[in-house]
Amino acid sequence: MPQDSGWTQRYVLYVPIFLIFYFLVIAPQRKKQKELKAMIDNIKKNDDVVTAAGIHGTVVIVKDKTVVVRVDDNCRIEFDKEAIVLVKSESVKPEVVK
After folding, report:
1. What is the pLDDT of residues 43-84, one digit of tens each?
2. What are the domain boundaries of the chain?
3. 5-88 under CATH 1.20.1530, yes or no
4. Residues with Cβ < 8 Å from 69, sequence gap 6 or more?
5. Whole-number Å distance between alpha carbons of 89 and 34
């Protein structure tokens, strides 16, 4: 018998643990990041948004890296697109749960 059988047994145990970790943690997180990036890339004027700070408003101007959000009649704030965590688009109608 080779002397490195203990080394092989350790790696045989590590591989399934890594695969379980990958499919339970890493893969879902990557999917969520891709969805968030797609949502941010598709922000357009008149979308209702929520920022990471919890500020709700309507998009007025979309720039390359920022958006201007109207939060009140006379109040507009410019945010980085990365600060947007939720977009409620007019084209997507939410389902009514009964």
Report:
1. 999 999 999 999 999 999 999 999 999 999 999 999 999 999
2. 5-88
3. no
4. 49, 51, 55, 57, 58, 59, 60, 76, 77, 78, 79
5. 18
**Could you give the CA distance from residue 23 to residue 32 in angstroms, rounded to a whole number?**
13
H or E element in which residue 57 lies: strand 56-62
Tell me, yes or no, if the pTM score tops 0.85: no
Distance of CA 56 to CAs 76, 82, 85, 97, Å? 11, 15, 10, 23
Give me the amino acid identity at 83. Answer: A
Structure tokens at 59: 């998009």
Distance of alpha carbon 34 from alpha carbon 38, whole angstroms:
6
**Contacts with 65 (C-beta within 8 Å, 6 or more apart), sequence order:** 80, 81
* pLDDT tier at 5, thresholds 50, 70, 90: low
